């Protein structure tokens, strides 16, 4: 399996099934990988045991839809509480951020799929995103719907790109995406640290450089979907147990959250300049 910048997909098991996945037929996998002999993130998996059925595309779609729906519901409730003035934004954002971060680390290091943990993560992220969205919406009315539509638009476009094979997930592309993701993360961290010392790098101040940087980050996040789709696809082709669909849903949600936040930020830059 190819390396991915999404930590959720670094600990996948292997199996013995040979099923059709998101877009590529199993009999023509990229690079003719031998899935049953690989190790993912140090975890050596096995074919489903008696009573366990292998994962299918429907499993991934269903679990991802459930996770996303919970995030949207908690997000809408949180945003409404903030906009109505019933709850202070940080009273929602801080707990949501902390709980989401802790649960995500537990999921990643536990290396086992867990529906309760993934759903807890989704609910916490919804509270966190709802709090932030409420703040942005109070300054820029209508920005929330624009960000949501933009996020789903990018997600849908990258899914079409993946399914049609317009962009092939090759080892070279994978390395480029991972390198770009790490580079963007380093720049954002550096900007945060320098900001604490009163140094403005111009990456998050709403200026021209900030807009360009935000567009680049959105592009990087979008390309990360290709790696997420390919990782989920390899789970399907290798026939891991169906419970691992929760792991795939978690991986896709982490990228969706990142993309939404970046689109929300970009829209605020553009609207503040009007």
UniProtKB/TrEMBL annotation:
Entry superkingdom: Bacteria
Keyword Nucleotide-binding: no
Region feature Disordered, mapped onto this chain: 1-23
InterPro entries hit by this protein: BaxI_1-like
Protein known as: YccA/Bax inhibitor family protein
Keywords on record: Membrane, Transmembrane, Transmembrane helix
Signal peptide stretch: none
Pfam families: BaxI_1
PANTHER family, per the entry: CONSERVED TRANSMEMBRANE PROTEIN-RELATED
Transmembrane segments: 65-83, 89-109, 116-136, 142-161, 173-197, 209-232, 244-261
The keyword Transmembrane is annotated on this UniProt entry: yes
Organism: Saccharothrix yanglingensis
């Amino acid at each position: 399996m190819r390396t991915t910048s999404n930590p959720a997909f670094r600990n996948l098991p292997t199996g013995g099934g040979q099923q059709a996945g998101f877009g590529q037929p199993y009999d023509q996998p990229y690079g003719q990988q031998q899935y049953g002999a690989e190790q993912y993130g140090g975890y050596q998996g096995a074919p489903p045991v008696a009573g366990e059925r292998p994962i299918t595309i429907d499993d991934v779609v269903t679990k991802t839809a459930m996770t996303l729906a919970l995030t949207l519901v908690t997000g809408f409730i949180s945003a409404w509480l903030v906009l109505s003035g019933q709850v202070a934004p940080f009273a929602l954002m801080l707990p949501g951020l902390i709980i989401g971060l802790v649960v995500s680390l537990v999921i990643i290091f536990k290396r086992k799929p867990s529906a309760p943990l993934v759903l807890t993560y989704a609910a916490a992220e919804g509270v966190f995103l709802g709090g932030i969205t409420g703040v942005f919406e109070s300054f820029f009315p209508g920005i929330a719907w624009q960000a949501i539509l933009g996020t789903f638009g990018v997600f849908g476009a990258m899914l079409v790109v993946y399914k049609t094979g317009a962009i092939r997930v090759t080892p070279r592309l994978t390395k480029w995406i991972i390198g770009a993701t790490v580079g963007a993360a380093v720049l954002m961290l550096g900007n945060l640290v320098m900001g604490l010392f009163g140094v403005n790098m111009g990456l998050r101040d709403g200026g021209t450089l900030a807009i360009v940087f935000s567009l680049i980050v959105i592009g990087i996040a979008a390309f990360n979907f290709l790696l997420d789709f390919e990782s989920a696809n390899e789970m399907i082709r290798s026939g891991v147990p169906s419970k691992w669909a929760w792991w795939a849903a978690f991986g896709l949600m982490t990228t969706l959250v990142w993309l939404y936040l970046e689109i929300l930020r970009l829209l605020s830059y553009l609207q503040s300049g009007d």
